[in-house]
Design a protein that fits this description.
Shape: globular
Largest sheet: 8 strands, mixed
Radius of gyration: 24 Å
Length: about 550
Amino acid sequence: MGMTPLFCGLLLAAGFAARLPGEAVNELRFSIRSDPKTFNPLLVADDASETVRYLTGGVLIRVNRRTHELQPELAKSWKVSEGGRRIDFQLRENIVFSDGTPFSCEDVAYTVRQLLNPALHSSTGDSFRTSQGSVETACTGPASVMARFPGPVASLDYQFDQVAILSSRSPKKEAAVLGPFVISQYRPGTSVLLTRNPHYWKKDERGKQLPYLDSIRLDIQQNRETELLRFRRGQLDLVNKIAPDLFERLSAELPKTAVDAGPSFDWEVVFFNEVAKSPLPDYKKRWFRSTAFRHAVSEAINRQDLCKVVFRGHAQPAAGPVSPSNHIWLSTRVKPHPYSPQGAMDRLTKDGFQKKGDALFDSAGNRVEFSMITNAGNNLHERMMAMIQQDLARIGIRLNVLTLDFPSLIERISQTYNYESCLMAFTNIELDPMGQMNIWMSSGENHQWNPTQKTPETPWESEMDTLMKEQASTLDSKKRKAAFDRVQEIISEQAPMVFLVFANALSAVSLDVRNIEPAVLRPQLYWNADRLFLTPGQKIAAR
């Protein structure tokens, strides 16, 4: 892939420049796509806030992003008992929060109670809500604490990877943290500055206190072209997620900085509005609630072409919600829907649709035409939309594309339900299906095609509810795997979400950055941020 003249000129002009005068040498810089929506770690529901939580929040247990194994953090040991309802932690001692407040068992108990507080509506707490009732917490010793949940929670210890411990005594609870960095400055629309936590408890093998970095600056930057140019100028040290076309440009010029870690855990999906109270005409509601219609649309989309053309070969066709990189939970029985325009037409014909000339009509004579919304400024989605338009036109469906700013898109799919279909990316930060409870449970707020149902509206949604509860309430790994395998089969059979591709985890890393260990599980590049450090000037020699 060749580069545009503008891009080439900027590369030649910028070279591989060092930092600008006055910039901190021991400061890691990278971008986030938007302002964080919250600094409360229990309310995180967006990428930017999750980045800040990961870098500042101290957790009891951490999932190693490379090995996928659990490792002790604030808890030096733990034990799950009572069939997955209870967990006991033995805590590290002589640890303090960033404001100097001592860390104790009361802080863990307080955090768990807040996590399950119904008034807080914590999406992080959804994975723990497997049964009705309240959580019990108690300090069982000077440095030990237990939590007992109303029902069994599968992989209970794994769930604590996302739970940043709050201080029960600090006056500014969000400002007192146990992670390697603290929030020092927030300039809306510009940047978030994180500086070293002077009281961080970890030391390296030589006894040197971590983190090695003095600070991390998160520049708020939506434009990905600008982000890459700033990386090339030496003003950013890494790009945690890079678009395939930009990745190929970088690979051609500086192959040592371009990293393809393989299929990510993130979803690219299409779903239809199946909400009964939505303002759509009844005939369109009938289309979208038809399994045959959804399955036909899935078969009409050429996933291989999406991978080759849009993602430049840096993607794999998706069969369902589990990435090929997740060897623990992937069901080998579920395959991507085959590209078959004829198969799609056969399904539609059996469902009462007829093609007249180049147009498809339903049994009542309505032309099959609908709109698909996606987030504005996402070049990948715009290219995917163009190809999906062409694919659906082959079976007589007219697709209209509508791009919206992200807040407007979220409002439509979760509040007003004033949309017909949506192309959307979902960020997956967990290996375990417990992280998907709020999507596959019919009562979940992110049960995107028809959220927050009081009772399941279809038999297959009822079956998924039962299966998700089963896998959430047993410690038997084989039973959990069997239950979630069946969930994957139902998703393939019913197509409530049409899974398209798993994009590869593409990133860019300056040769200045040391101890980097790229992974496919978020956060791919900075998961070991407390051990990253910079060696300015080395990258020029490494060229």
